[in-house]
Amino acid sequence: MKEIANRGKGKTLLISAGIEIMLIICIMAANLNPTPILYFIFYNLLYGLVFSLLIPLYCLYKENGAPASGRVLAEAGFKKLGIRQWGVLAAFVVFSVGGQLIPKMAVGEQIQWHLLPMGIVPLIMTTFFEEFLFRGFVQSRIDRQFGWVPAILVSGAMFSLYHLGYPGFCTWEDILLLFAVGGGFAAAYKLSGNNLIVSFFANLPNAFVTYMLKYEQFPVMSVSSTIAAAVTLVLIGLIFLLYHDFVRYGAHGIRS
After folding, report:
1. Which residues form the CAAX prenyl protease 2/Lysostaphin resistance protein A-like domain (predicted)?
2. Cα–Cα distance measured from residue 83 to residue 89, given in angstroms and rounded to the nearest whole number
3. DSSP states of 124-141 as a string?
4. How many CB atoms lie within 10 A of CB 78?
5. Contact 219, 110 (CB under 8 A)
6. How far apart are CA 27 and CA 43, in angstroms?
7. pLDDT tens readout for residues 9-37
8. pLDDT digit string (tens) for 59-109?
9. C-beta neighbour count of 218 within 10 angstroms
């Protein structure tokens, strides 16, 4: 029994490490020659849909056999919000957003508010992939197998290291800062009772503010990136819809 458990732990670490490496490679490839079509293929499709969504969904499905789709999604943190979740969310948003904006505004530094509209849709997409993978998939599995402290550390480390693929986030200072930020999102996920909605909405406002304050470190946000992100979000919805139907009918034999 212990040997089986150890094998499961090793498999979790191996899958997590493999996905992390592929994320970095895909993001580097997307930014190496960032034409719209290549960026869409390497970033939205490969980094996002394949390695951040489809492979985790497949692993969750295999682990749970053929349960109702709601159970698998609950395993990934798709749960209702209660008073506790709203409290955790509010605290983390105020801390992360206020901690960045208030000092800047207090000294009269100009905030690039005009940049935000173009970044909204791409950042919604990227934030979803980050939270589904690093919190809903990796952190939940490691929490069950190793405990909550290693889960938060691994989730935060994976969140920071995957940014090595972005040319603007390659310094040690950035990686250490992102580790602290990722650890914060992981803590929000754990404190909320492993609720993906909480960690997503704790991450998203922080992403908006970080983009406005450090836009030169981000990939260029344009009309094409907004359209590509919108298409990807539609594909995410279709994947979940097809997944639900597959689990409901295909796994138990299609009903006549």
Report:
1. 113-199
2. 10
3. HHHHHHHIIIIIIIIIHH
4. 16
5. no
6. 6
7. 889 999 999 999 999 999 999 999 889 99
8. 988 876 655 556 777 888 999 999 999 999 999 999 999 999 999 998 888
9. 19
